[in-house]
């Protein structure tokens, strides 16, 4: 529709530019749903725990949450040193 309208305007001398449409595919986004109660609880827990770790000057630490299949008040939060999550490998050459 835009292309047709611009052709008309070009013939009338009201438009001198060029037009090239750009299409988008939103299939994955279209299938997305609202976050569940679990998603919201986990996100809040991760953010709050990160704030506490920062407040206590614990840098280089990733937030961990365990017991996620249990009730919310049974979740356990903490921090894991990021270096403990890495594995050093010697490369040939």
Task: Describe this structure as you would to a colleague.
The structure is a single chain. By secondary structure, the chain is an alpha+beta fold. The chain contains three helices and two strands; from the N terminus they run αααββ. It has a domain at 35-86. A two-stranded antiparallel ribbon has the order 1-2. The model has no long low-confidence stretch (mean pLDDT 89).
Largest sheet: 2 strands, antiparallel
Largest sheet strand order: 1-2
Rg of Cα set? 26 Å
Spell the H/E element sequence. Answer: HHHEE
Number of E-state strands? 2
What is the helical fraction, as a range of percent?
25-40%
What do the pLDDT scores average to?
A: 89
Indicate the overall shape: elongated
Outline the low-pLDDT stretches. none
Q: Roughly how many Å apart are the termini?
A: 60 Å
Strand proportion, as a percent range, falls in: 5-15%
The number of helical segments is 3
Question: Which class of secondary structure composition applies to the elements?
Answer: alpha+beta
């Amino acid at each position: 529709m835009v292309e047709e309208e611009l052709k008309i305007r070009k013939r009338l001398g009201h438009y001198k530019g060029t037009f090239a449409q750009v299409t988008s595919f939103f299939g994955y986004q279209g299938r997305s749903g609202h976050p569940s109660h679990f998603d919201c609880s986990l996100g809040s827990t991760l953010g709050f725990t990160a704030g506490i770790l920062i407040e206590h000057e614990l840098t280089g630490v990733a937030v961990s949450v365990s017991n996620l299949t249990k009730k919310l008040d049974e979740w356990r939060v903490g921090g894991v040193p990021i270096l403990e999550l890495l594995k050093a490998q010697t490369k040939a050459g």
